Amino acid sequence: MQFLISMHINPAVLDALTDEEKRAIGEGHGRFMADLKESGEFVLTQALVDPSQAAVVSVRGGQPVVTDGPFLEAKEFLGGFYLVDVENRERAVELAARIPDAAIEGLGVEVRQVMFSDGQLEA
Amino acid sequence: MSGTPGRPAAARTGFEDLLRELAPQVLGTLVRRHGQFEGCEDAVQEAVLAATVQWPEEGVPDSPRGWLVTVASRRLIDQMRSDHARREREAALAAEQAAEPAREDVPGTDDTLILLFLCCHPTLTAASQTALTLRAVGGLTTAEIARAFLVPEATMAARISRAKQRIRAAGGTFTLPEDAEREERLRVVLHVLYLIFNEGYTASSGDELSRPDLAREAIRLVRMVHAQLPDDGEVGGLLALMLLTHARRDARTTASGDLVPLDEQDRSRWDRAMIDEGTALVKAALADTTLGPYRLQAAIAATHANAATAEETNWTQVHALYLVLERIAPNPMVTLNRAIALAEVEGPEAGLGLLATLDGDERMAGHHRLLSVRAHLLEKTGDAPGAYEHYRRAAKATASLAEQRYLEARASRLKR
């Protein structure tokens, strides 16, 4: 079964990290990806640009209106995700716990099962 | 690798079935000769791929099996030559080949079964067991298996090669397990085939057409096992269960993909030939004095399949069969299904009473099936608000899009 492990980042928390801490996070993600690929559980991963670069699109009276984002007035934003194919929910949770973000106060890692998929998976 | 979806289109017609049938036999022949399952399995996969490229152009060779054995052996030798660490074994292989030129036309009947036991090795996860079985026994390419499970080909390749390493590390050998172990290992094999069937049966994805038909593949594999173990009632039972379930396939969904519950299905669209075959298998399997969960489930499916209309279903028999099943293989899902049958026999309150016994079961807490069955039974008692609430909760809990649509539609019908 497939799960999306999403990483909810708080830009203020990230900004407050030291360079060493940032590097450790980057290396942690690299190791995590390599392990996933080796275990045959990796499907896809993507990271998103900073929320300040988002555009919010709405259509009012048939006319599209585009404003600078982000849409949510929140402290945390979707920063990226891993899509994994694993044996069960417990395994997905176990993997999520290995993501460096999970160990940092103020950053959130969330696990949700995939219900429907479409598209090419030639990653 | 990107852009080409596995086999060339021409290979899908004509000899695909032949290749699938020969792949495990060729693998069996190779492993018998050379040992080392891992390397042989890769070599056979390459030979199968070579056949899908060459046969459409050059025609199927006179002895397709011999062709595959020759090509796979050559690949195996090439592979060993390129591997310096294995020079000694290469020499041994060459000597072996010189001493023993041809043993290849011994039909490898038992090999398929031995391969299944090896691929369904108990140290592997279910995902690895299914992937390896589909490749080594089913003759599917890694790309096809990856598509079937909606993962990248590289991921599936890693999973398969890891599975083979694990088997080697666990000391898995190319022999039938001893009697004491055999029964238990056969149950694992049947479970893996059942999982493959279910994956094909319940799959929810955007692009059904390009995915290999796993339900049909599972039926084909169980047929192979049944041909070799015709007296095993559970093997016959599993084959029957799959046929009786698959027979309803066309009637299960509407053209737009919405689920149609059993009692509303157009029974004229059920596959009669498949039902007849399944029913005959159930009868034979039940003649065996011991009972097993697959043949009991098949007997239940046969009872449904042989009712001309939903109203004519022999619910007393269905309920009795679930009672036996519950006794030999206790499981909250079985109790849940028995509650549906009990409600038909004694009324929805009796069914709800039985469901209440599951409330304390951790395995069922918040499970969408428990919620949806309760919703159905509440609807039958006339408790529309209760039914509405449970349909909505079940819709939120399910991981199947088709089921979610169905449950939401049931809820909407109650909201006026």
Any descriptors?
heterodimer; A: 123 residues; Alpha-Beta Plaits; four-stranded antiparallel beta sheet; two-stranded antiparallel sheet; 3 helices; 28% helix; B: 416 residues; mainly alpha; 2 domains
Please give a structural write-up.
The complex is a heterodimer of chains A (123) and B (416). Chain A is of the alpha+beta class. Chain A has one domain: Alpha-Beta Plaits. Chain A contains three helices and six strands. Chain A has helices spanning 11-15, 19-39, 89-96; strands at 2-9, 42-47, 55-60, 63-68, 77-85, 108-113. In chain A, the strands form two sheets. In chain A, strands 2-5-1-6 form a four-stranded antiparallel beta sheet. The radius of gyration of chain A is 16 Å and the shape is globular. The mean pLDDT of chain A is 92. Chain B has 416 residues and is mainly α. Chain B has two domains: 1-172 and 182-202 and 211-229, no CATH class; 230-313, no CATH class. Chain B is built from 21 helices and no strands. Chain B has helices at 9-12, 16-34, 37-58, 64-81, 87-99, 109-119, 126-136, 142-148, 153-169, 179-202, 214-228, 233-246, 249-252, 272-287, 293-305, 315-328, 332-346, 348-356, 368-381, 384-397, 401-414. In chain B, α11 runs antiparallel to α12. The model of chain B is unreliable at 1-11 and 100-106 (pLDDT under 50). Classes of the chains: A alpha+beta (123), B mainly alpha (416). Chain A binds chain B through residues 1-2, 37-44, 85-87, 113-119, 121-123, and chain B through 1-3, 125-128, 146-147, 149-160, 162, 204-207, 399-401, 404.
